[in-house]
UniProtKB/TrEMBL annotation:
This is UDP-N-acetylmuramoylalanine--D-glutamate ligase. GO terms for molecular function: ATP binding; UDP-N-acetylmuramoylalanine-D-glutamate ligase activity. GO terms for cellular component: cytoplasm. It comes from Sphingobacterium lactis. Keywords: ATP-binding, Cell cycle, Cell division, Cell shape, Cell wall biogenesis/degradation, Cytoplasm, Ligase, Nucleotide-binding, Peptidoglycan synthesis. The gene is murD. ATP binds at residues 120-126. It is an enzyme of class 6 (ligase). Residues 118-297 form the Mur ligase central domain.
Amino acid sequence: MPNIAHTYYPQSGRLVILGAGESGVGAAILGKDKGFDVFVSDMGSISDKYKADLQAEGIAFEEGQHSEELILNADLVVKSPGIPEKAPMIKKLRAAGLPIISEIEFAAQYTDAKLFCITGSNGKTTTTLLTYHILKNGGMDVGLAGNIGNSFALQVAREHHEAYVLEISSFMLDDMYHFRADVAVILNITPDHLDRYDYKMENYVASKFRMVQNQTSADYFIYCMDDPETMAALAKHPTAAVHLPFTYDSMTELGAYVDTAKNINILVPNRDAFIMNIEELSLQGKHNVYNNMASGLVGKIQQLRNKAMMESMSSFTNVEHRLEHVAIIGGVNYINDSKATNVNSVWYALESFSTDIVLIMGGVDKGNDYEMLKDLVRSKVKAIICIGKDTGRIHEAFEDDTEVIVNSASMSDAVQIASHLAKKGDTVLLSPACASFDWFKNYEDRGDKFKEAVMTL
């Protein structure tokens, strides 16, 4: 059975896609294959690649505008997760009472594949990739989609896997109503994107818990017992799914925990136990132990062999721009963590390294509260080099916690300064805590510029 009953949404008529990125173009192709009259509209410019895809499929589109007469006649609307509710066209569509859903919601109607869905404020990309790695190496026919990889809708249209690992953001979840995850994973919930949630943490938490809203007793819910926001929200968001918590700080009869010998123990009903020492994991650091426990639970639910899981968890290499090792130059370790666009991600990064750290941070501040970093900065960071436009708040936050805070004129300048401040055995860590759109195109561009600067030292 598909993951959504077809009767919830129109199965023919005019399908309007707002946003012509990876998810929008994928949804357009699936819609065309299912017989819809498809129209794609993007307020910005459409990249040459996606324009060529739409032209090759014979799908009508526009860019640089939203034409009301071509949009408000829709029977069904699929919108990009990046478009906020306050956007004028969304308000008009809502006023007209038209159904607006996400690409994930749309595509789930047309597949009976198992869906392993992962969300969380931090670690979801790593955990999604690790889960995909474990399942693929374990012999499953599995696709990778959501916030990462190729469009879910495009894969449902043209590839047909028996399972998908989906990285799901809160923005995607906001437009998902009848979707059901066979396995839902909530890694953690910390303040992020609060501007989209009326600056209310409870609204953001409720968005994350939409992951479990349609689960049945045949499904599984994996979550972190050590995360206070998740634990506080459990009672408000009940689910019939089998609960499998994971914890570093205590023990659990079902789920996953770390014992006194530093072994991960994974215990799933009607499956054999899985035990692996954390020192054998390819990804080190406490946050990566959590990520491995979550991914390992998914693998064990699927009854993968312990040997195959161990091989996968000891061989996995992390996503680019997330705690990515760049080089060791003059005994100094250079780490690219450009994907760390919020304070909590930086906390995880600082927690991962024990040596003296020269921290490169800054960019477009999203209303960050740096308080949670102060203890780690005091104990581990010997210098902070600021990049980007919002440097004042970083100086204010940490002026009493580290001896050196300096501004830089460019990424190359920041890396040069770092190389002079760092000694043999130190770590130079790019972990910005901020968005990248002042000096760079995106966080990938920021990370690439860091790596280029390091390699010219």
